[in-house]
Amino acid sequence: MKDLNQKANSQEHVNGHEHDLIARSKSNDFDTSTFDKDEELVDPFCVEESPQKITFEDVTSAAFKIKCGVINTPCVKSRLSDMTGIDLYLKKDFLQTTGSFKERGARYALLMLPEEQKQIGVISASLGNHALALCYHGYKLGIPVTVVMPVVAPIMKIAACRQYGANVIVEGLDMREAKRIALRHAKEKRLTYINGYDHPDIMAGQGTLGLEIVEQVSNIDAVVVPIGGGGLIAGVALAVKTLHPNVMIIGVESERCPSFYMARKADRPTLANIDSTLADGLAVPMVGYNAFATANPLIDKLVVVKEEWIAIAILKLVENEKCIVEGAGATGLAAILAGQLDELKGKRVVLLLCGGNIDTTILGRCLERGLAAEGRLLKFMVTVSDRPGGIAELCRKLANIGVSIKDIMHERAWIMSDIFSVEVKVVCETRDRDHAEQLKNMLYQNYQRVVFGTSDVSTLNLPQRA
To answer: Transmembrane ranges (predicted)?
Structure first.
């Protein structure tokens, strides 16, 4: 990294797409006093007053130095191209050894350490992917690594970090506390703190993804990049725009963690209100100073997507691409399915599938939510005769049209209108929307009272296959 202490040039602000979904976001909801308790605990590589912009030379240097240590992942045409009307290509960086793009920046940051510091070691705070990448490549390079993981970090990821021989400290209620603890350890033990998304070498390493994309796919019209702390889009946008200035760079966030949107609105990184989200890898309350300074002038459009579309995108990637991708990696496809990028129809677009470390229980919930949102998983209540064969007749009617029953229960005690009736609650699965309509028509024709459970399950209109 060239002259890390050099002050970045004045930031050019590009008006982004402001989405009304997050008008309710409140940047003042956070108590910033917690950041001032340890004023001496400062990350010297990430300073608000002097943000460090990376250069294209930094990215090419990273590409040369890490090429033997990370996987050049495939970028292939998607089977979803016909359904979306877009010539889609998927950059499958979830195929890295530790399951995410974070390996690129982690390895480069470790390689760029002075020899003396390589002996002393590094430290970072992370919930998962960055910690895994740093521990893995620290193990490969023989560099001691300490990671501070908050108590809410997944047990599986904590165990994986320890398998690589890292010193794992599980402490802190959230990432803010974990970071303060890590900075304190760094100061006391002379460890180098490596921010997972804002360290200049981290951003340069992530930019190698952009170099691979333009080499693998010709005549690209747009690249769609998930945004969390901003390091990935900073590196990728710089690499792609330097080589092909006309390529459109689109950033995508979840409506529950719109930190880059809030930063653009304030014209500087600022705290955003973060809620629990399927895209937990993007749940960063404030984008990095260096990342914002580098990325903001290069982003042509910023999109915020609803949670249900992320669930549908995860489902579509499993069904059509056989790709198990975490919520953060599916946000680009979510924006397309939601109809927020219709201007890309007929164009060649690359989506970054940047991570695949999704918990198996969360994956199951995502798939069910995706099926429900798409209208393929239905819940309804129907009143049938309580005489022998009433419920059996309902089941036969469902079977005759090919509907699969996932759950069924009946209730007698709270049916006040008719002592000879029973209310049956059914959760069932259909093939597609036409099949769901066939089910509804059959029920309405044969039963007087049918109520579909649409109050807590929203059915969305998806693009049809061509």
So the answer is: none
pLDDT tens digits for 367-387? 888 888 777 889 898 888 878
Q: Is 325 helix (H, G, I), strand (E, B) or coil?
A: coil
Report DSSP letters for 89-125, one per residue: EEEEGGGSTTSBTHHHHHHHHHHTS-HHHHHH-EEEE
| Token code pair at residue 112 | 């760029």
Statement: residue 32 has pLDDT above 80: no
Q: φ, ψ for residue 255 (rounded to 5)?
A: -60, -15
* pTM: predicted TM-score of the whole model, two decimal places: 0.80
**What angle do helix axes 231-243 and 208-216 make, rounded to 10 degrees?**
40
Q: How far apart are the two ends of the chain, measured CA to CA in Å?
A: 48
Q: Where are the alpha helices (DSSP H) in 190-306?
A: 200-206, 208-216, 231-243, 259-266, 289-295
Total residue length of the chain: 466
Helix (H, G, I), strand (E, B) or coil at 175: helix
Q: How far is CA 332 from CA 44, 61, 283, 372, 378, in A?
A: 33, 28, 16, 20, 27
Q: What are phi and psi of 227, to 5 degrees?
A: -120, 125
Specify which residues 349 forms β-bridges with: 88, 222
Region at 389 (left for phi over 0; alpha for psi -120 to 50; beta for the rest): left
